Amino acid sequence: MAEDAIDERLLAAARTCVLAYGVRRTSLTDVARRAHVSRPTVYRRWPDVRTLVSDVLTREWKTVLTAGGRVPVTGSGRERLVAGIIAIAEGMRDNSVFRKVRDADPEHLLPYLLDRLGTGQRMAIDLARRGIADGQADGSIRPGDPARLAHVLFLAVQALVLSAMAGHDAIGREVMREELRTLADSYLRG
Predict the structure, then answer these.
(1) What superfamily does domain 1-47 belong to in CATH?
(2) In which residue ranges of the chain is CATH 1.10.10.60 found?
(3) Segments of the chain assigned to CATH 1.10.357.10
């Protein structure tokens, strides 16, 4: 079996385990069993479950960012970026893995909120940076360092999305969409 195929099976098995048990209760043994491989096969690729789960979360980020980046929108760079931000935020809110981690193992998110950015977060910031540069080129986004603007915008959107997930019933989809639109559009317009 090709190495990439084994990696895919292991990532899929880890995703299934996280959904079933949460991060804390997922073990490399569970992942190996679900993927129908030996434990040494898993250990050769990932030294521990935390690293494997981080790779699963990065993969989920890629899925959400790819879907959000395909939003068919015409208009200015700012309008396209705001539409993409809304689509990505909704994708995060609806993503079953992110919901499970937030609900069952919120402490797993703390390093990514307080200490450092993860790979998926850096990918999101880079996507926003490119969108900001496009909007600045057409004059629809205010001047400023695109990397700095993207970073601040990401942190604001991330806080809103995580908070909205906590109050899912209080902050419905339409309210979140409108508030995100106002937040992002106002910030980018300057």
Answers:
(1) Homeodomain-like (1.10.10.60)
(2) 1-47
(3) 49-189
Residue 117 contacts residue 125 (beta carbons within 8 Å): yes
Give the span between the Cα atoms of 48 and 42, in whole angstroms. Answer: 9
Q: Whole-model pTM above 0.85? A: yes
CB-CB neighbours of 61 under 10 Å = 23
Neighbours of 7 (CB within 10 A): 14
CATH assignment of 49-189? 1.10.357.10
- CB distance 157 to 85 below 8 Å: yes
Supply φ then ψ for residue 49, to 5 degrees.
-70, -30
- Per-residue pLDDT 10s for the chain (190 aa) are 577 899 999 999 999 999 999 999 999 999 999 999 999 999 999 999 999 999 999 999 999 999 887 777 789 999 999 999 999 999 998 999 999 999 899 998 899 889 999 999 999 999 999 999 999 999 999 999 999 999 999 999 999 888 876 655 667 888 889 999 999 999 999 7
Q: What is the CA radius of gyration of the chain?
A: 18
**Beta strand residue intervals within 7-166, DSSP E:** none
Nearest to 111 by CA among 27, 23, 11: 23
By CB atoms closer than 10 A (0-12, 13-18, 19+), residue 137 is exposed
